[in-house]
Amino acid sequence: MSKKKKKKEAPHDSQGSSSPATREQSEAGTAPKMKRKEYEREMRRLHGELVALQEWVKSSGAKVCIVFEGRDTAGKGGTIKRITERVSPRVFRVVALAAPTVREQSQMYVQRYIRHFPSAGEVVIFDRSWYNRAGVERVMGFCTAEQSDRFLEQVPAVEKAMVDSGIVLLKYWLEVGPDEQTRRLESRIDDPRKIWKLTPMDLKSYSRWYDYSRARDEMFAETDTDFAPWHVARTDDKRRGRLNIISHLLASIPYKKAPREKVKLPERGKRGGYKETKHPFKYIKERF
Q1: What is the number of structural domains in the chain?
Q2: What is the pTM (predicted TM-score) of this model?
């Protein structure tokens, strides 16, 4: 079994010093926001590549597993939507599990996630994953420190087994700065499109920024391995963040253009005596 990377010292969050992620966030904040026209043009190109990836996955029988973790409001859901909006849900499956049931609580912790792992010809995207135990569960007291520590000790072996079985495993951490997180949470308060995103858990988590920072640092120290490394994306600018993540995803998978026959529409069949029905169809009101 491959050995993990040597542990690195966890970044500090105390006054007078900042973590690499914090410094990078400050540097990223100086870049101008990407214009929508430029963003959509580049996204259109990347969508074409994602379809090419999809066809290769289907034809080759590849198995791809993508994990999205990160700060609250960092843009995990929006990034996943942009990845999946032009591909088939039969190939790209999104897994976003609810809180475990009583039965699931009695199981081995990763057991309920394993059944969602990809089979041949599938890309499975986890919108939060087994790493809940190292993050929200630890910070919010849903598990003990001992349970979280045991998870961090065991999960590299699980991920090594995944990789050894032929699964392409990509792990992304989305990092957003504290000021931008505040702005995004405040924008949800009165927006009827976003109010469902503002849960009591979000409000409790908001005050625990540094608790989450410490949990993140320990998680990285234990699970940022050679065979399953963490990839960090800055997402204060959501558009740039999404493009960077999708570009990295595509560059990390050795897909090739799948063979495809030239498409030609066949001729329609003859009417064969068919007559339009006189059924009184109940058309919806055309408001637009």
Answers
A1: 1
A2: 0.85
